[in-house]
Design goal:
By secondary structure, this protein is an alpha/beta fold. Helix content is 55%, strand content 9%. It comes from Facklamia hominis CCUG 36813.
């Protein structure tokens, strides 16, 4: 999102650098790289020369036989390169100043930024177009030169700018200390596992710090400007014991009450954001439809945990995952995009690691997530970031999947799809550590049926199947008989596999 403020050349060069963060990319032909970037070969070659000159300490660029390979030294993140380009960008420089103060005239601004009035006007126009394209309700006015935005918009977007323009170790609030922010966070997160989940992210502290700094300065959010009700504020307040409601902001003592919570939560918590598992009740939802969707999501996650024997996850943790997915949908779109800015390859790598353990689980989990978020039109990197977050929050997932990964696959197909589905659910509960049962809702394809790659087939007498040794007609059998047959076949498959391993070892 923020890269759109950069020049076209800076965007191209950042794109080139980002490509070579992918561990799967070893070398790319210059023609293919030009196509990936969307530029001519001559422009690409100039960009490569510039990257090599600008960052000779940070990376090694090799060009041989029409191939390009960039080795990025381990101490340098994508964020480092983004920040470097941002500091060379007039638009970022102008925003950095205007977020802090207004400038009386264009002539004065031209002197401050060492720009001609014409160049300054063009930069301002690009910034205003950026706001318009992203539907951010803000504009830069020229008389005086200032950012025209509401206090809530300021508090929402200023942290996003600071996060990329300054280093994480630069504390930019002149009055509010990091410890004051931490103290307030601890009081609230004591009873909110959702806030506790985000406690380690520096960006969260920065957002609250800006709210505290603006409140200290007297730049307040007008009543009704931020969509959080008194009921919501009262609920948060009740969670903080009365003897722990004193905090300091800029060295001054404040009592946490509803008006103060309103100021500190602006841009962060609204009526749709769920902070506590205890809020998973209809009374806490502005609309019953959202409550019903969240309840259904929790039940799907619960079913997954049982189906795949993920024994480490507790009900409270499943509730937290449900809350995280729900809140992500109501998060400001551009703030949401922030969280998916830089982790593209670590996300893909971790997902692949889980997929290698059990791709069925990942597919079913992602299907649950997508079904819930589909009305919110969350796609691309933002969707990938959410799935990644859920996989990382799921307690002891890797060990549980390793322990419970089925060794074999079975297909159930009779004339009754609903029976097949229910019977598959039952048998998956019985054989979850050894065999996974599937059913199909598609019409049976007589030709392709012979090509299916299952270890066992549970069918009706009307379903033709050439896999005689591994198939069972279950229509007239009791469940006990079916279970015993499956047990015997699993034992036989295990013995065959052991014999195969011994033969490989002997050879």
């Amino acid at each position: 999102m923020r890269y759109r403020l950069l020049s076209q050349k800076a965007q191209r060069q950042l794109h080139i650098i980002k490509i070579f963060y992918d561990p799967e990319i070893k070398a790319v032909s210059t023609r293919q790289l030009a196509k990936m970037i969307g530029c001519s070969l001559s422009i690409l070659l100039k960009d490569l020369e510039e990257i090599e000159t600008l960052y000779d300490q940070e990376l090694t660029l090799k060009r041989e036989d029409g191939q390009v390979y960039i080795v990025i030294h381990t101490d340098y993140t994508y964020g480092y390169f983004f920040q470097s380009y941002a500091h060379a960008c007039s638009e970022f420089m102008i925003l950095d100043t205007l977020f802090k103060r207004q400038i009386n005239t264009m002539d004065e601004a031209a002197e401050i930024f060492y720009m001609s009035r014409t160049s300054l006007s063009r930069a301002i126009q690009r910034i205003n177009n950026f706001f318009t394209d992203l539907e951010i309700p803000a504009q830069i006015t020229k008389s005086p030169l200032k950012l025209d935005m509401s206090e809530t918009v300021y508090r929402t977007y200023y942290p996003l700018f600071l996060d990329i323009y300054y280093s994480v170790d630069e504390w930019l609030c002149k009055d509010v200390t990091y410890q004051e922010v931490l103290d307030f966070f601890l009081k609230v997160s004591d009873h909110s596992n959702f806030i506790e989940f985000y406690m380690k992210n520096p960006f969260i502290y920065l957002r609250l710090a800006i709210n505290m700094q603006r409140t200290f300065e007297g730049s307040l959010v007008a009543k009704g400007e931020w969509a959080v009700s008194d009921t919501k504020l009262e609920h948060i307040l009740k969670k903080i014991p009365e003897d722990k409601r004193q905090i300091t902001i800029g060295g001054r003592s404040y009592t946490i009450d509803k008006p103060l919570l309103y100021q500190l939560s602006a841009g962060i918590v609204d009526d749709h954001i769920i902070l506590y598992p205890q809020c998973l009740k209809q009374a806490y939802f502005p609309q019953i439809a959202y409550f019903n969707r969240l309840k259904a999501l929790y039940q799907q996650l619960k079913h997954l945990s049982i189906s795949y024997q993920l024994i480490s996850i507790t009900d409270e943790q499943l509730q937290l995952i449900s809350i995280i997915i729900h809140n992500y949908c109501f998060m400001n779109r551009i703030v949401r995009e922030y969280f998916s800015d830089f982790n593209v390859f670590s996300i893909a790598d971790y997902r692949k690691m889980i997929m290698d353990l059990n791709d069925d689980f990942v597919s079913e989990l992602e299907a649950c997530i997508y079904e819930f978020i589909e009305p919110f039109k969350i796609q691309g990197p933002s969707y990938g970031q959410l799935c990644f977050t859920v996989l990382t929050v799921w307690t002891n997932l890797i060990n549980d999947l390793k322990a419970g990964k089925p060794r074999y696959k079975a297909l159930i197909s009779t004339e009754n799809y609903y029976f097949d589905r229910a019977y598959a659910d039952y048998l998956n509960g019985q054989f979850c550590n050894s065999i996974k049962f599937y059913n199909t809702d598609q019409p049976w394809n007589w030709v392709d049926a012979q090509k299916l790659d299952y270890d066992l087939y549970l069918i009706s007498h009307k379903i033709p199947c050439d896999h005689k040794e591994s198939s069972l007609i279950i229509t007239n059998l009791s469940t006990k008989q079916v279970v015993e047959w499956v047990k015997s076949k699993v034992q036989l498959l295990d013995e065959q596999n052991k014999m195969g391993e011994l033969r490989i070892g002997d050879s």
